[in-house]
Amino acid sequence: MRLVHVAIAQVNTTVGAVRSHVDRAVAIGREMAAADVTLGVFQEQLLGGYPAEDLVQWRAFVDAQRLGLLRFAAETQALGTVFAVGLTVEHEVHRYNAAAVVHRGRVLGIVPKEKLPTYNVFYEARTLSQGRADLFATLFGDVPFGDLIFRFDWGVLAVEVCEDAWSPDGPMRRRCYSGAELVANLSASPFRIGVQETRREMLATRSGDNQCVVAYANAVGGQDGLVFDGGGFVCQNGRVVLEAERFRAGWSGAVVDLDRTARLRSENTTWRADALHHLEVAPRVHELVAPAQGADRSRLKYPVPSGANFFLPPPTPTTPADPRAPFCEELLDALALGLGDYFTKCGFSQIGIALSGGRDSLLALLLACRTARRLGREPSELVRTFYMPSRFSSDVPRRAAERIALDVGVPLAISPIDDACARELTALGELLGPGETPTPVTLQNIQARVRAARMWNWANSTGGLFVQTGNMSERSVGYTTIGGDLEGAFSVISNLPKTVVIHLLEYLRDTTGHEGIRLVLSHPAGPELAANQEGEKELMPFPVLDACFALYAGEKLAPDEVLEVLAAMFPSLERARLERDVRRFFELFTRSIYKWVQAPLGIHVGNLDLDRERALQLPVVSSDEWTRR
Question: What is the pTM of this model?
Answer without folding.
Answer: 0.93
